[in-house]
């Protein structure tokens, strides 16, 4: 048996999220079904770097599986693709050590949140970016975003459903960039809690609109009260951008 | 009664084309249903600049309708939008003279065909651009495209189903532009026959791949044989870009 690591892109629009759920179309299920077919019915399970919610996209999700088949690494994406629907694309594969684990070996993850502004929505972005009708003050958003940098307790920036006790995470970088009305917020950290990126972005959006003070990021990080942070931004603007390993 | 002209964007992915067909989800049907609701059940019919096929998108389709309602022009997009699904967006409306007709008053139309190249498909463009796996020779495509300029008989570049007798059309401009692997072919003319843009693009694609000589555009324009032109490019890369009137 050898362990294969794959990088996968998916359009989250028509999935009930990444993780297998009974009776639902999920990314994990589609990939496991494809691999099971390739292994002539032998059930193959995959492990990914983490879940993504319904509507959330992936530009560089990572998963691994173990296989008895001797297929050259560069052929794996082509072989798996023949059994996959067009909203999931395997972009790369390689063989890794047995102690590699897509989830437990993660060193850093990067998420990207896309926003577009303008006079009206456009049908071409409706599933791929969040539409903001009002002008956003990018400089205020940049200033507030920088306060997330470093090690913080993110209790105020995660869903009440979060079961993990340790809510301390480190943010290595965060950028807010605008180009012709398209805004990208890119965040790299050592780990992210449930809904953490979407609540961080929701808070920055309210700051950009002027309905929340720039200082509220610091306030919420210190108070650890969920009510001190902004609303959870919708899923369809969010992309799991890349995952880095040791 | 006053005549209202609207500009509309739509994502053609989930439509069986523009024109009403029994039992099918079409753009015309969705808009007519919306307008009929706004007119409290009074049936409203719309006339567009022309049809688009299943999978074809519109960035600037134009249609008109007649109404007894006194709604300010700038409010019409908002009013109609409340009754429309998210894959159709009205971007502009104005009142026009009674003798204006979305189809018969057309002066020029512009189409855009989007192609992307790379090592693999991406799920995010699968419905919005044509994927070309092999390198395309852009200079050959530009050279061949320029031969479409001017007045020609486009018999070789339309579907055999075309019922219109006069197949002479004038192309005012055609451009082939590449940016980081994304190629856009933009074509403006006084009118287009059934499948004409897709056959023009299909021919340019084969020229770009090197499987067809650059001179074949001139050959096919002169011979008027459909077999002398390339295959019909798929619908999902095509956008009705804009329509100009007198």
From TrEMBL, chains A, B:
GO terms classed as biological process: tRNA pseudouridine synthesis
Enzyme Commission code(s) on record: 5.4.99.12
InterPro entries documented for this protein: PsdUridine_synth_cat_dom_sf, PsdUridine_synth_TruA, PsdUridine_synth_TruA_a/b_dom, PsdUridine_synth_TruA_C, TruA/RsuA/RluB/E/F_N
Keywords linked to the UniProt accession: Isomerase, tRNA processing
Primary role: Formation of pseudouridine at positions 38, 39 and 40 in the anticodon stem and loop of transfer RNAs.
Family: Belongs to the tRNA pseudouridine synthase TruA family.
Subunit structure: Homodimer.
Protein name as catalogued: tRNA pseudouridine synthase A
Organism from which the protein derives: Mangrovibacillus cuniculi
């Amino acid at each position: 048996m050898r362990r294969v690591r794959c990088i996968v892109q998916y359009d989250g629009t028509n999935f009930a999220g990444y993780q297998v759920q009974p009776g639902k179309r999920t990314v994990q299920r589609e990939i496991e079904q494809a691999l099971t077919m390739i292994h002539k019915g032998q059930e193959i399970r995959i492990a990914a770097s983490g879940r993504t919610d319904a509507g959330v996209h992936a530009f560089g999700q990572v998963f691994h599986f173990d296989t008895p088949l001797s297929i050259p690494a560069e052929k794996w994406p082509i072989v798996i693709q023949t059994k996959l629907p067009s909203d999931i694309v395997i972009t790369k594969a390689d063989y890794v050590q047995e102690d590699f684990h897509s989830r437990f070996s993660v060193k850093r993850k990067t998420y990207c949140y896309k926003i577009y502004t303008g006079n009206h929505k456009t049908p071409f972005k409706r599933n791929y970016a969040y539409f903001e009708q009002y002008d956003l003050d990018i400089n205020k958003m940049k200033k507030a975003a920088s306060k997330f940098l470093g090690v913080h307790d993110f209790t105020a920036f995660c869903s009440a459903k979060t079961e993990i006790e340790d809510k301390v995470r480190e943010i290595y970088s965060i950028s807010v960039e605008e180009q012709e009305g398209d805004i990208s917020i890119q965040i790299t950290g050592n780990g992210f809690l449930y809904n953490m990126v979407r609540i961080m972005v929701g808070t920055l959006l309210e700051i950009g609109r002027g309905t929340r003070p720039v200082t509220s990021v610091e306030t919420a990080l210190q108070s650890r009260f969920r009510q001190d942070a902004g609303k959870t931004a919708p899923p369809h603007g969010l992309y799991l951008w890349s995952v880095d390993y040791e």
